[in-house]
Each structure stands twice: as structure tokens, then as C-alpha cells.
């Protein structure tokens, strides 16, 4: 492949390096020039363009990415169509992600023009979540390099989503004088919610004295009818001969590991009893916040083995964020001096999409109670505690702006909207006020979101002193909108393709606060059926 300025007379078939405007027409980056395009550019006064000229043995970026993706062996993973040299791969089921790191490293060592990135080993994923991406860096790459990568991919499974199984779980809670029934009841509710998110089911609970014999008897009983037994001790394990590990052994089981290098979660116990797994839960597992208990429980529910060696290897990355539920965080961070108790939050309303699944009409212009959906969404944003509402436009920009006529919003135009969600995020974040502590990303196609819902997210963000990511949720499942702290803004500038901020939230390790707002958090209108079901009427 040759890259650089080329005379316009020889540009037919070349691939544009940059978006170019000729008269009233805009030719996007990576567009392959036709004879008509060349004529249009010449008429607009172009004598040369910066472009890539493919050699006879080159594959275009999309063809190369597709060939590599097709050569991969994986489970419960679906490859999406190639676009801008990228193929994104998404989970077909909720579960735990596993990856052959050596194979990924080998692929990335073939040549810098070919890259693959994945989620971390054992990352929990939801159905539909992106788990990996193949990206070709230039506009084309030699077929020999693609063949070399394909041979590596053919050597075995590169990654998989290990789907959660509908396991049965029995719970034991030990009791000491002074422990409140309300604490035990809350622990049960938290555990049920934790299991529900991954397909498990709590079948029975036993409350016993904090004594070896009583716990051993209850564990043996529950192990007969359940796949996993979880023991919450009224007192934390302080020795390998303490009540929980000793009870597992007294019942005839084996303690695989007592203690883990994950904080919070250090005091976990893992054992087996009658062929079933037994987990002595650390005290932090009474909270819904992520801790080492989640790491072990989720893997077991996904059908993965967890050994003593596996737990010993959890130290790198095992220092989790201090959680607000701890009574005395070890090293509280000072609140930013520039931020007051009333932290400024701007809303970024995404309204640039093409509504591709609607078959033509723009869903944002569909009428809800006689009002365009995008106007309804903007009015609810304006009715919240947010300081400013920024509307990102792109597809049918003028029609969307006309639907918002008279509203006190700020517009951010995204000419690259066809490149995916990341381009709209970048355009919106670029317009957020310099003194804003965070930006709430609101999707324009969620008709159930009310001003009060937005206010609840803003209140939670202010309570965290602007340090946390705040997400809307429904029945324990994450949804939208999402409020991002300013600390993530710089990373958003590096997003590419149809990628949102979700993986940034995971990678940056910020505390995440989920706010239950009901089913509105999960209802969008991507199809005509969904829109009609939500009460909308499409317009031509």
C-alpha cells in the first residue's frame, strides 16, 4: 500500500485519508473514490488528495478485519459486521469472559498494523456486551500478514463467554448475641440480588449459633440439595481453625483455601463438601458492592473451576476501591477544593444516530403524546438540576434542531456520526463547561426517563463528591443514563467506533454507584415494535 498525496487524475480507486468536502458533498474518511468522485473533486478545484493506494496483494481494512474475525474460534461470542477497519465481538450470553492471553499476544506481535484487544481475564459480562475488537490500523494490510494471524487463530479457542448456569444456592447465617435480625434479613436480600444477576437461585436459608457443630450440620444438610453453600459468619474468620473452616472439615469436607489476596474480600473461605462448593463469605459480602466474594461466586456459577492457585493469583488487580459502606475508609481522599457541595453537572443528550433499525424513519422525531421524542427528552433534561443541556446532532441535523426550536439547549454538531457512538460522546464532552464536575450521558431514545430520575443521579453524584460514576439501574442490572466524573473526560477522547464509555468505567477503577429508577433505565426504542409498544408514532 502506498500512502500520501496523489494527483487527482490518478485517484480513482484510492482510499481517502481524511474527510473531504467538495461542493455540497462530503466524502468521508476511508471512502474509496469512484470516477464520479474524482470528477466532483476536480470541479471543486482539487489537484491532489491525500489517499492510500492498495497493492494487488492488499486487503482493505474491513476485509482484513473480517477475515481475522472469521478465523477465530470462540464460544458464546458473535462478530458484528466490519466498519472503519474494525470488527467488534459481543457476548451472546451473560457470563464470565475467558481469554487465551498468549494467543492474543502472538497476534499482536505479528505486525503493528493488526491489533486485537479484549476484556480482562474472568471479566463478568452481560449479553450483548462487547468483549473484544479486531482493528486494522491503516486502510489496507498485506494478505500475507492476515494469513499469518489466521493461522494463529486456527490453533485453538481464543476466548469465550462461559454462560451463567441456573445453580441452586443454600445460605447459612450464624448468630451471636447482639446481631440484629435486620442485618441478617438485609444480607439475604443482597445475596438474592447478587445471585439473580447471574442466574443463580437461593433455595434455602439456615440460621444457626456461631458454633462448629451447628454450622457443620447445616452445611451437610444444604449440600444435599444445592450446588453451592454460602456461609455468613456472625464473626469474621480470624484463624484457619475458626468456626467456618473448621465446620467444613467437621462435615466431611475439604478447605481449599482460607484467605484471599483481594481487598475487600480477604477473609473468604473456599471448600468442597459432598462434591459441592462451600464459600465462607467475608463480611464485605453483606454489601452489594463488588468484592472478592463476587469474583469467586460468579466463576462458580459460570461453571468454571476455582482452585487455591486461582485465588492466590488474584492479588494483581485485587486492590479494589474503598467502598462507602465501610465505616472508616483507610485513606479518605480529600474533596476537590474547586468543587462545592452543589457540584455543576451538564447533560449530554445524544441525538445524532441514524435509527438504522427503524427501516427509514428517524425514531427521535416519532411523536409521543403529540411531541417529538427528542423534544420530550430535551425538556426533561432542562427540567432537571443539570446546569446545561448539550444536544449532539448528526443524522438529519436540521430536522432534529427544528424539533428543538425555542428550547434553551446548546448544540454540538457531529459530522462523523456514522463512525459510531464514540464520535458523539467526544463531540458532546467537548462542549461541557470547564467548571462542570461531571457530564450525564442521556440517550435521546429513552421515553421513560423523567426529570426526577435525572435528579436522583445528580444527587448521588454530589453525595459522592464528584468522584464516582453514577448509573441508572433496574432490578440490579445497569442501564442508562450514566453520569461520568470529569476524571474520565480525557479518556473519552481516545474512544473509537461504536463504543461507549462502559469499558472506560471498568478500566479506570472508579467507584460506581447504581441508582434504581425502575424499568425506565432499560427501555429504549430501537425498533418500530419497541417504539409502538412504548406509545410512540413514527413520522416519515
From TrEMBL:
Keywords: Magnesium. It holds the Pfam family NTP_transf_3. Gene3D superfamilies: MoaB/Mog-like domain, Spore Coat Polysaccharide Biosynthesis Protein SpsA, Chain A. Coiled coil: none annotated. It comes from the Bacteria. The keyword Transport does not apply. The keyword Nucleotide-binding does not apply. Residues 348-507 form the MobA-like NTP transferase domain. This is Uncharacterized MobA-related protein. It comes from Mesorhizobium escarrei.
Amino acid at each position: 500500500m502506498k500512502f500520501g498525496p496523489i494527483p487527482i487524475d490518478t485517484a480513482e480507486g484510492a482510499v481517502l485519508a481524511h474527510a473531504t468536502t467538495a461542493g455540497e458533498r462530503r466524502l468521508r474518511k476511508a471512502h474509496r473514490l469512484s470516477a464520479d468522485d474524482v470528477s466532483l473533486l476536480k470541479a471543486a478545484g482539487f489537484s491532489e488528495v491525500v489517499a492510500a493506494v492498495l497493492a494487488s496483494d492488499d486487503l482493505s481494512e474491513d476485509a482484513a478485519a473480517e477475515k481475522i474475525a472469521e478465523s477465530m474460534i470462540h464460544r458464546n461470542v458473535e462478530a458484528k459486521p466490519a466498519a472503519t477497519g474494525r470488527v467488534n465481538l459481543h457476548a451472546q450470553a451473560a457470563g464470565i469472559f475467558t481469554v487465551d492471553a498468549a494467543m492474543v499476544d502472538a497476534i499482536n506481535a505479528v505486525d503493528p498494523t493488526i491489533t486485537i484487544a479484549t476484556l480482562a481475564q474472568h471479566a463478568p459480562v452481560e449479553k450483548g456486551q462487547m468483549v473484544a475488537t479486531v482493528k486494522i490500523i491503516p486502510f489496507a494490510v498485506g494478505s500475507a500478514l492476515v494469513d499469518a494471524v489466521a493461522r494463529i487463530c486456527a490453533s485453538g479457542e481464543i476466548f469465550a463467554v462461559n454462560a451463567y448456569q441456573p445453580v441452586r444456592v443454600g445460605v447459612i447465617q450464624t448468630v451471636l448475641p447482639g446481631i440484629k435480625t435486620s442485618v441478617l434479613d438485609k444480607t439475604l436480600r443482597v445475596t438474592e440480588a447478587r445471585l439473580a444477576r447471574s442466574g443463580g437461585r437461593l433455595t434455602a436459608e439456615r440460621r444457626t449459633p456461631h458454633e462448629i457443630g451447628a454450622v457443620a450440620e447445616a452445611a451437610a444438610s444444604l449440600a444435599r440439595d444445592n450446588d453451592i453453600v454460602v456461609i455468613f459468619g456472625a464473626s469474621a474468620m480470624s484463624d484457619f481453625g475458626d468456626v467456618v473452616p473448621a465446620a467444613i472439615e467437621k462435615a466431611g469436607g475439604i478447605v481449599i483455601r482460607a484467605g484471599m489476596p483481594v481487598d475487600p474480600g480477604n477473609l473468604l473461605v473456599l471448600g468442597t463438601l459432598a462434591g459441592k462448593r462451600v464459600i465462607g463469605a467475608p463480611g464485605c459480602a453483606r454489601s452489594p458492592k463488588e468484592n472478592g466474594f463476587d469474583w469467586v461466586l460468579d466463576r462458580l456459577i459460570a461453571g468454571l473451576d476455582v482452585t487455591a492457585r486461582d485465588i492466590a493469583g488474584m492479588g494483581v488487580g485485587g486492590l479494589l476501591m474503598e467502598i462507602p459502606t465501610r465505616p472508616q475508609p483507610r485513606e479518605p481522599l480529600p474533596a476537590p477544593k474547586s468543587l462545592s457541595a452543589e457540584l455543576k453537572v451538564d447533560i449530554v443528550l445524544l441525538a445524532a444516530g441514524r435509527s438504522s433499525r427503524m427501516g427509514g424513519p428517524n425514531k427521535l422525531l416519532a411523536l409521543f403524546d403529540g411531541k417529538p421524542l427528542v423534544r420530550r427528552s430535551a425538556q426533561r433534561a432542562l427540567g432537571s438540576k443539570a446546569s446545561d443541556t448539550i444536544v449532539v446532532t448528526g443524522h438529519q441535523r436540521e430536522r432534529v434542531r427544528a424539533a428543538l426550536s425555542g428550547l434553551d439547549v446548546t448544540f454540538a454538531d457531529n459530522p462523523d456520526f456514522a463512525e459510531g457512538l464514540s464520535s458523539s460522546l467526544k463531540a458532546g464532552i467537548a462542549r461541557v463547561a470547564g467548571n462542570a464536575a461531571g457530564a450525564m450521558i442521556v440517550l435521546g431514545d429513552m421515553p421513560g426517563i423523567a426529570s426526577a430520575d435525572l435528579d436522583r443521579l445528580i444527587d448521588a453524584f454530589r453525595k459522592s463528591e464528584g468522584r464516582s460514576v453514577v448509573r441508572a439501574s433496574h432490578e440490579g442490572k445497569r442501564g442508562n443514563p450514566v453520569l461520568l466524573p470529569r476524571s474520565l473526560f480525557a479518556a473519552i477522547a481516545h474512544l473509537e467506533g461504536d463504543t461507549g464509555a462502559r469499558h472506560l468505567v471498568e478500566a479506570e477503577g472508579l467507584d460506581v454507584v447504581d441508582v434504581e429508577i425502575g424499568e425506565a433505565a432499560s427501555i429504549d426504542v430501537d425498533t418500530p415494535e419497541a417504539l409502538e409498544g412504548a406509545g410512540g408514532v413514527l413520522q416519515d
